[in-house]
Each structure stands twice: as C-alpha cells, then as structure tokens.
Design goal:
Layout: H1 2-7, E1 9-17, E2 24-26, E3 29-31, H2 40-53, E4 60-64, E5 70-76
Parallel strand pairs: 1-3
Antiparallel strand pairs: 1-5, 2-3, 4-5
Length: 79
C-alpha cells in the first residue's frame, strides 16, 4: 500500500527566495514576494504552487524545511 502512495506523489526539492519583486518559478528556485516571517512565505509557496500546477492547495505539503529556504515539497496526485 505504501508503494501506491509513493506513486501518487511527486517530490520537489526547492530553494525559496523570499522578498522577491514577483512570485516566479525558475528551475528549482521559487521567488516569492512574501517575507519569511510567521509562516507567510510557506503559505505563499503553497498558494503559488497550487496556481502554477492548477491543483488544490490541500494536495501540496511541505515535507522538510518548514523553517529553511531549502524545502522538500510533496504534491499528491489524488486528493
């Protein structure tokens, strides 16, 4: 059963650049206008990826790096 779960998730390793001029994805770097304060950049990251990939926010989770600029994000295919 865990193999099924792995097959339904895509894992991304991203470097977050907060306080940018605009929200933008360039390779493995995500530029966000939000500051890295009180989880604002994390919320902005999930919202940005949701819009970029045209998926629901609940399909995205930060697996590692919640308080770091280097993050591992999981995108679930079926939720």
């Amino acid at each position: 059963m865990s193999n099924d779960k792995k097959m339904r998730e895509k894992v991304l390793k991203l470097k977050i650049i907060p306080n940018a001029k605009r929200n933008e994805l360039k390779g493995d770097k995500v530029y966000l206008t939000a500051p890295p304060v009180d989880g604002k950049a994390n919320k902005a990251l999930i919202e940005f990826l949701s819009e970029h990939f045209k998926i629901k926010k609940r399909q995205i989770s930060i697996v590692r790096g919640e308080k770091s600029r280097n993050k591992v994000v999981a995108i679930s295919q079926h939720k």
